[in-house]
Structures are given as C-alpha cells and as structure tokens.
Design a protein that fits this description.
mainly beta; 5 strands
C-alpha cells in the first residue's frame, strides 16, 4: 500500500510498536485510531488521532505515525480540514463473531 504524503482523514491506524522514546505507549499497543481532520493552525504535519469515542486524543507527525503505527485502512477523504464534513463521531463497535456449537 502506497502511503500518500498527506495521510487522509478517516484513515484507520493501529499502534503496533513502542520504544524507549515512547514508553507510555507500551500498554496501548493494539489500540486503533482514526486520523482526524487537519487543523489550519497546526498544518498538515500535525496529525490528530481520534479515539473510538470520537475525541481527538493525541497528536503525532507523519514520520512517527509510520514508525509506530500500522495503516489498516487508507481513507479516500479529500476534505483535509473537514470544512464541509460533520465531525468524526463515535466509532461503531465491531461485533464479535458468533461461535457455533
């Protein structure tokens, strides 16, 4: 998968690694986030990570996002600032597969 220079909003990523520079992430490995809409004040290199509740929880940059996160689903969103979009909402919980006995 070719990752564009500006990672589109709504892209789904999973925290997959940490190191001595990010020890607080160790217990969060496996968490999934969506890339939020970019803030005009912060620019396109400040990537807001949106949690399952729809809250902007933390920020990173492209280099660190590609270093510590796996891109699970690349979005095709073209409105980088979300000016004509509704804010990201709570993420629907995935249903667990039923077990058949």
């Amino acid at each position: 998968m070719k990752i564009p220079v500006v990672i589109p909003p709504k892209t789904l990523v999973r925290l997959s690694r940490c190191d001595e520079a990010t020890p607080g992430w160790r217990k969060q490995i496996g968490r999934e986030f969506r890339v939020g809409y970019y803030s005009p004040q912060d620019g396109l290199d400040c990537i807001g990570l949106v949690n399952d509740s729809g809250d902007y929880e933390q920020t990173t940059d492209r280099r660190r996002l590609l270093m510590y996160f796996d891109v699970l689903r690349l979005s095709h969103e073209s409105d980088l600032h979300g000016e004509k979009r509704t804010p990201l909402r709570r993420r629907k919980q995935r249903r667990k597969p039923r077990s058949f006995k």
